[in-house]
Amino acid sequence: MHHAGPPASPTAKPLIDRDWAEVALRDEGLVLNLPDAGGWSKGSPAGPGFHAVHRATRSVFRLRTWAAVRSVTPAECAERARLFWPELPTEGDPGLVDSRPLVSPPGYRGRLVVVVEPAGPATLDGRLGAVGASLGRCLAVYFQTRAGGTGAELAVAESLALVASGTVDRLDLIRIEDRLRESRPEYPFTES
Q: What tens digit of pLDDT does each residue of 101-125 get?
């Protein structure tokens, strides 16, 4: 299934594992780590949440949290998340390459799913989705990258692995003292 997304880069470029930035997303109550911090621009969100675009790879990263009933389940959070992000990958999608339990942020349970599919001649589309539930809260993360030509498979695989392990697996809750001190930058990126 072909998903609309960022156009493929003319040369396959993965995200680079350097120049990480820790960003406090106060509205979401989370701390996020992004690689190649200077390469991201604030995206145009279609609704609430965090939205950034990586200029060199044309990758897209979105994160959103919302209040829910105290007993909310990961499946209920996933159902709601797909209402605003229908492109979130599922375990039933063709091209499934990874599906595992969500390991962070603390107190959340859910799944991280990664799918890679052809997106046209010699072009691959990689999508990562992570949905979780906590006591009265839901979390949804979406990352999409696309590459074409020589090295496309490696570029997509490296970018997906970097975001899964370096960003999603390291999500953390903002502590009350961080909210009071505002010790971390909220959005150090440029406007697109």
A: 999 999 999 999 999 999 888 899 9
48: which DSSP letter?
S
The CB density around residue 38, as the number of other CB atoms within 10 Å, is 11
Question: In Å, how far are 8, 87, 118, 147 from 121, measured between CA atoms?
Answer: 11, 21, 8, 11
User: Model pTM?
Assistant: 0.87
Q: How are beta strands 172-173 and 30-34 bridged, if at all?
A: antiparallel
- In whole angstroms, give the CA distance from residue 103 to residue 145: 22
Q: Which domains are delineated in the chain?
A: 21-191 (3.40.1000.10)
**Which candidate, 44, 39, 77, places its Cα nearest to that of 59?**
39
Written as one letter, the residue type at 175 is: R
Q: In angstroms, rounded to a whole number, what is the distance separating the alpha carbons of residues 50 and 141?
A: 9
